[in-house]
Amino acid sequence: MHYTFLYLDPGSGSYVLQVIIAAILGGLMFFKNFWLKVKSFFIKPKVKQEDAEEPEQPAS
C-alpha cells in the first residue's frame, strides 16, 4: 500500500478560494452579456419624438 503525503500551506487555501470566486463572477458576466445580446435582438430601441421630427444638422 502506497501513501501519498500532501502539504497545503495557508496560501493555497486563499488561492483556491480566489479561483472559485473568479470563476463564479466570470460566469455571471458571461451569461449577463449573452442575455443582453439575446434581448437586444428581439427588442428594438425606442426612438424619441424630438429625434424623429428634427433632421440631422451637419457638424461644422
Write the layout of secondary structure elements.
Blueprint: H1 10-42, H2 49-53
Structural features:
60 residues, mainly alpha, rod-shaped
Describe this structure in a few short sentences.
This protein is an all-alpha fold and 60 residues long.
How far apart the termini lie comes to 84 Å
Helix/strand class: mainly alpha
Q: What Rg, in angstroms, do the CA atoms define?
A: 26 Å
> Considering DSSP H and I runs of 4 or more, what fraction of the residues is helical?
55-70%
Query: SSE string, helix = H, strand = E?
Result: HH
> Count the helices. How many?
2
Low-confidence stretches: none
Shape: rod-shaped
Could you characterize the architecture of this molecule?
By secondary structure, the chain is an all-alpha fold. The protein has a domain at 13-52. The chain is 63% helix and 0% strand. It contains two helices and no strands. The N and C termini lie far apart (84 Å).
